[in-house]
Amino acid sequence: METKILSDELDMIRSQTKGSTKLIHFNNAGASLPPDVVVDTVVDYLREEALAGGYETEAKHIAGINGVYDKLAELVNADREEIAVFENASAAWATVFKGLSFEAGDEIITSEMEYVTGLIGLASAKEAGIKINVISNDALGNFSLEKLEKAITAKTKLIAVTHVSSSGGSILPAEQIGEIAEKHGILYLLDACQSAGQLPLDVKRIKCDMLSATGRKYLRAPRGTGFLFVKKASQDKVKPVLLDFFGAGNVSLSGYTLRQDARRFELYEKNRALTLGLGKAVEYALNIGVNRIWDRIKYLAVLLRQQLAENPAIAVHDAGYWLSGIVTFSVKGMESEDVKRKLAERGINVSVGGSQATPIYMEKNGLRAVVRTSVHYYNTEEEIAALCQTLSLLINQNSNLEV
């Protein structure tokens, strides 16, 4: 039976995260503070590479580099042959989306919470004659499975949705969507950019064909890392967008053969130090336990929403039954960018969710920008109290200026 992350363990985790002693970091949905061991893994490899040579260092560490695929597979309950490492989630998502074959008149279903990268791809598909159906949330802010069922037609070829909203705090019912996709024989692409490392992911339960994710957010990995899952049975349905000798063999002017795993979607050249850093971050999360991480994030997010809501000048915007560790709000009489800047001056990191990140959701709800706070398991109750106290101080100062 898994236990909660208690104070002694939390103190140890924070002692292994130098950044947590310097500031209060509530921008984990942008980029988390990495554990020291992740930083050391990257730096040590780069130093060795500088002294021994790039190819030579890679050969020495090849078992560890290849082991990253096993760790990522364990994280999402996949087989290692279904994992590819990318520099970011956008490249992973675009690789599979652009590798799918559509014809004019085909239909793709998405949600109002879709991230901007996905919308760019969908807009390109729409220009090519593909119909895009957007499933709007219900009055309570929930993704409607009933609307999804009704939207499916014989021409529906893909369901492409974002698991955890970047600017809204809500979680889509990924497993139920997967059941519907499987029932109708429709390909299913899940953007797990904000959910990987935050909450448990099981591709077999979700039943997705493809899943893209980043390392820098809740996995606490270095920037410039990400990964892609493509189900073995679906790999031949996705044509690699770019190919080099790593993904193709038996090359001649007559043609070539593809690798028989998801690494056909990779290119050979990537940062081996960052790849090892990604693997170390995943290992760190697995050692703690993703279920335990998720339990603490939920607890901290509820606490933060409750304390924010106590201030009448703060409006919390998250809606729906299933909410993540991303908490969005606005402050009466203050621009979100100003709130972010004033908090940063006091050693508290937050972010701003602009209309460009999730434009359909933001426009529907009349939001131009929101303050985005995102808690992680290494955050504390005291940090939440400090944030809310600082916000109260800023609000009072702003009110005095207006008088």
Classification by helices and strands? alpha/beta
Shape: globular
* Biggest sheet strand line-up: 2-8-7-6-5-3-4
Give the strand tally: 15
Q: Please give the alpha-carbon distance between the first and last residues.
A: 56 Å
CATH topology (level 3) name of the largest domain? Aspartate Aminotransferase, domain 2
Radius of gyration: 22 Å
Helix content: 40-55%
Total individual domains: 2
Strand portion? 15-25%
How many helix segments? Answer: 14
> How would you state the average pLDDT, rounded?
95
Major sheet description? 7 strands, mixed
CATH H level, superfamily name of the largest domain: Type I PLP-dependent aspartate aminotransferase-like (Major domain)
At the first level of CATH, the class of the largest domain is Alpha Beta
Succession of helices and strands: HEHHHEHEHEHEHEHEEEEHHEEHEEHEH
Protein name: Aminotransferase V
Family: Belongs to the class-V pyridoxal-phosphate-dependent aminotransferase family.
Domain Aminotransferase class V: 25-387
Keywords: Aminotransferase, Pyridoxal phosphate, Transferase
